[in-house]
Design brief:
This protein is 0% helix and 48% strand. By secondary structure, the protein is mostly beta strands.
Length: 123
């Protein structure tokens, strides 16, 4: 599976962005998907994940209520809608896919990674 993330950019605090991640291959619907992020000098951290069917989701406490993950299996695409953005959301955001069926916030459970897209939130 190859993943291509897009949609990052520069936005003011309180603004919104929608990230997209397009996946190659015809088996997209069997993979759980997730978003992680990495700020300069910090470890990569979990943001959100969604089950292969899209029926279940999980979020990091820091984004709960502000971010929404969704997917369109017909388009082989997963999305991250980010609202009420804060300067501390500034990071490179990575799209990722996993084979295991359960929801996971663990970096090691993910098998495929995209190249990342930069999100910068100004105060």
């Amino acid at each position: 599976v190859q993943l291509q993330a897009s949609g990052g950019g520069l936005v003011q605090a309180g603004g919104s962005l929608r990230l997209s991640c397009a996946a190659s291959g015809r088996t997209f619907s069997i993979y759980g998907m997730g978003w992680f992020r990495q700020a300069p000098g910090k470890k990569r951290e979990f943001v959100a994940t969604i089950s292969n069917s899209g029926s279940s989701t999980e979020y990091a406490d820091s984004v709960k209520g502000r971010f929404t993950i969704s997917r369109d299996n017909a388009k082989n695409t997963v999305y991250l809608q980010m609202n009420s953005l804060k300067p501390e959301d500034t990071a490179v955001y990575y799209c990722t896919a996993r084979k295991v069926l359960y929801l996971s916030n663990r970096y090691g459970d993910y098998d495929y990674w995209g190249q990342g897209t930069q999100v910068t939130v100004s105060s």
